[in-house]
## 1
Amino acid sequence: MERQVIEKTYRRYAKIYDTCFGRLFEPGRRMAIDKLDCQPGQRILEVGVGTGLSLPSYPDSVQVVGIDISQDMLNGAQARLRREGADKQTLLARMDAEQLGFADNSFDKVVAMYVASVVPSPARLVAEMRRVCRPGGELFIVNHFRNTHPFIGRVERLLAPLSGMVGFHPDFCLEKFSRDTGLEIDEQVPVNAFGYWTLLRVSNRKPFLEPDLAQPSLAS
Ligand SMILES: C[S@@+](CC[C@H](N)C(=O)[O-])C[C@H]1O[C@@H](n2cnc3c(N)ncnc32)[C@H](O)[C@@H]1O
């Protein structure tokens, strides 16, 4: 999806996002923050923070920076912080996850929840996550990957042309994602009872050979 399509889609979603996806995506957010194993003083970057549904779950002892490309989604996150996060050291900024405005090695951990199948180039997203994460830090990615069940997989392929409308690529393929990003996955855990979403944990080994970023394709 192109940047303008993403912004338009999430402008539409912003007001209803928490009602539609708050509880549905909650197991993945909770598991990711659990796995992050936040230690006092650590700096955490959350890319595609959306309306900030995860923010109340971070401990107060870490500094969280949340970025998103959609100002409408960020407005929701800002409102949530005003309501619920007065004690937290949280910064929010409008930024493209494929072009992060942070120096190399700025964060201990970088997390992307339900974002990898939304951005135009997952390879660029991951390359940026790796760049801003310190060597030996960790990346966490929660996403739906194409279902291996023949019927569900077929439905997802049929829905693929509607990605601009639904706001993500329903037939996002894990094998292709790992290949394109060059990620060496350390842990892969199904997130809910049906394993429809998956959490990936990756140690940020550097130096890192950048994948061929000339190929922005997402599915298959
Ligand atoms: C499905 S929502 C997930 C929101 C949140 N992480 C959650 O757990 O509910 C995807 C989010 O990614 C954001 N996004 C999409 N492309 C982006 C990009 N290139 N840079 C930053 N954020 C992006 C969207 O604006 C949206 O807020």
## 2
Amino acid sequence: MKHELIKLADIPETGSVIVPFFGRELQVYRIDGQPRAVANTCLHLGGPLECRDGRLTCPWHGASFDMASGEKLSGPGPQGARLMRLPTVADGDALFYVWGN
Ligand code: FES
């Protein structure tokens, strides 16, 4: 099954865009031009993330995460943890969340 997240044209070339996702939020952005979607949830205590200086950073206590790997770069939170990346596929003019295929 699949669920449309966003039109491809609405994903910025730099930075990120927040997309609603079944009552939660995703951060959607491009890595080397390819769309990527991760949960907009800090791995420390669940704060929201902001795209700043090429990283996703949590304003609550300052944790920051690599946008490509999802790995925590600095700040509090579990060692070695990664942001939750969603399986997606670009189809036609949109990006879809896919599951159960
Ligand atoms: S909740 Fe994100 S750094 Fe604490």
## 3
Amino acid sequence: MLKKMINSAQIDFDIIPIDPLLIKSGQATVGGVDMSFVRTYRFGEKEEPFIPGSSLKGMIRSYSEKICRSLRDNPVPVCLPYVEPGKEQQGERGQASCGLSFEKYKKGHEVKTIASPKIYSLSCPACRLFGSHGFIGRFSTSDAYLTEDFKKTGSPLLEIRDGVAIDRLTGGAAGGAKYDLEVLTRGEFGTTLDIRNFERWQLGLVGLVLRDMEQGLVRLGFGKSRGLGKFRAKISRFQLTYYNRKVSHLSGLSELCSKEENKAYGFFAETGDKSPMPEPECNGLRYEYDLADTWKKVLEPVVRNLENDMKNAAWPKCLEDFLKGGK
Ligand SMILES: [Zn+2]
């Protein structure tokens, strides 16, 4: 991806559980529990529960994919990251993984690499933002740790629940073998999202996820269909940074890059109303825009842009043509 810095977004938020939460540990279980909550030793202090950045990224990616799917039915505009090309089941046609498609192409054509602008331009919107095999993506999430504010007033509470009882309560699989879950019922975690070199629609998409997270509509971790994982996000910082340039309205890569770069990467056009930006704070080469109180309003025109972009997205045809044509 572009080797220069153009823009970035940093968003801080706290995760406040509403339902019990279970982020499964891959480690051997603690005290005989079948599924235990993931823990870490932070700064060599005592062990505490945390939420790995990869879990948060997975949650935001899959919710983003749902939003994209709801904006276009046929063909859907995003891939299924685990589906190999040629092995699509019924209902998965035209949705094979971008990353696995590139791997298959490389094997079939005996090439070692495909240029990164090419990969970007042929990838579905979700892979463009979150990455795929061999392409990192623009979006990262740091691990979420207990907030200092929470630690001042309380300590996290983990409880053992009977998994089968939870299933019966919610009408899930009945009569299964007995197993225990360790769930978190009290604790607040803070994290930061970082998006580097974003297209305008990508910020709109993340904004829609954040809105729903704020309203407790997104679930996290294990047992989403069993009444686990509901939480509320409290957003405390929403900052956009532009490198070595001041902008008057929210601009993404399409507007900030050259014609040649636009052609090579296939950035989506920035259409519709502009979003005025406040005065920035200048910090060396960085112009920093504080949108903590205004991000929803600023992103409104971007959301309409996103709807259009998803309707017009050339994916999956562009990828299918590339795989067929061999160019
Ligand atoms: Zn994809």
